[in-house]
Amino acid sequence: MARPSPNDILEWHYVLEGSDGTPFAGGYYYGKIKFPPEYPFKPPSISMITPNGRFITQKKICLSMSDFHPESWNPMWSVSR
């Protein structure tokens, strides 16, 4: 689930539910997506807030669809609510 912040349309918050059969099962993991003012022409930054053993909290996540790899960004990608 992902929703925009009520105070800033460029900041979204998301929750991921841990998948069954994984060490993350039963957990809920909170994160943040920050869109640049130039979106969709520039990619968002994505970070985790909940400690999870996989990603460092408050640090940008290395994804082809994030500003960690802006050269991979495709403006056709979008966020679903």
What is shown here, in short?
This protein has 81 residues and is mainly beta. Helix content is 0%, strand content 31%.
What tags apply to this protein structure?
single chain, 81 residues, mainly beta, Ubiquitin Conjugating Enzyme, 4-stranded antiparallel beta sheet, 4 strands, 0% helix
The CATH topology:
Ubiquitin Conjugating Enzyme
Helix share, percent: under 10%
Q: DSSP helix count?
A: 0
Strand order of the largest sheet: 1-2-3-4
Order of helices and strands: EEEE
> Structural class of the secondary structure composition?
mainly beta
The CATH homologous superfamily is named Ubiquitin Conjugating Enzyme
What percent strand? 25-35%
Distance linking N and C termini: 6 Å
Supply the number of structural domains.
1
- The strand count comes to 4
Please give the CATH architecture. Answer: Roll
Q: For this structure, what is the CATH class?
A: Alpha Beta
Radius of gyration: 13 Å
Q: What is the residue-averaged pLDDT?
A: 89
Shape, principal axes of CA atoms: globular
Low-confidence stretches: none
Largest sheet entry: 4 strands, antiparallel
Protein name: UBC core domain-containing protein
Domain UBC core: 1-81
InterPro entries: Ub_conjugating_enzyme (IPR050113), UBC (IPR000608), UBQ-conjugating_enzyme/RWD (IPR016135)
Pfam family, one: UQ_con
